[in-house]
Structures are given as C-alpha cells and as structure tokens.
C-alpha cells in the first residue's frame, strides 16, 4: 500500500505558538468552564478524526486496512502522530525542527501501517 507521508507543515500547525497557547488556556480553564472542551473538540479534533475515520473506513471496505472500527483506528493514528509533540515542544515553548518533525511523522505512519494495513 502506497502511503503518503505527512508533511512537517501539518505537524507545524499543532506546534504553532497560538495552537499551544489555546491548549494551555483550555487545560487551565476546563474546571471553570467544563462545556468548553466539547465546543473546542467539535470545531477541531473531532472534525479531523471523523475525516480520517471516513477515509480509513473506505480503505477497510476495499480490504486494504484491518479494522472494524475506523473511528478507533483514526484516533490511534492521530495519537501516534500528535502525542509526542506536546512533550517535545515543551507545550509549545520549544521550536521543533522540520527534520525532527519528519522523523516523528515517518515513525507514526510506519507504526500505524505495521499495525493496521493488510499485506
């Protein structure tokens, strides 16, 4: 299966100073405004996860992906891709070089392909 590798620009958005500042604000205010998490997720992460899950569902129907739960597969792929970014960027206070982003993206894609893609 030919896999397009994520470009650093896609990961750069997640490590952008404004994006990190928004997440820090969200984390700090979630106890005071519990409904805000749902609002933010609905306009960002949930849309991305659903778009990815839709594509993964099509791949599963075509027999190219081993999953009966495309939503879970999408969630896991995004976790592989985005999970390390907060720690490595120190919650947006450290710039991550494109070379490091490429390695992180390649590793996430490679792990996902090994776990989910049919031979």
Automatic annotation (TrEMBL):
SUPFAM superfamilies: Tetracyclin repressor-like, C-terminal domain (SSF48498). Residues 10-115 form the Transcriptional regulator TetR C-terminal Proteobacteria type domain. Gene3D superfamilies: Tetracycline Repressor, domain 2. Pfam families: TetR_C_7. It comes from the Bacteria. This is TetR/AcrR family transcriptional regulator C-terminal domain-containing protein. It comes from Nonomuraea cypriaca.
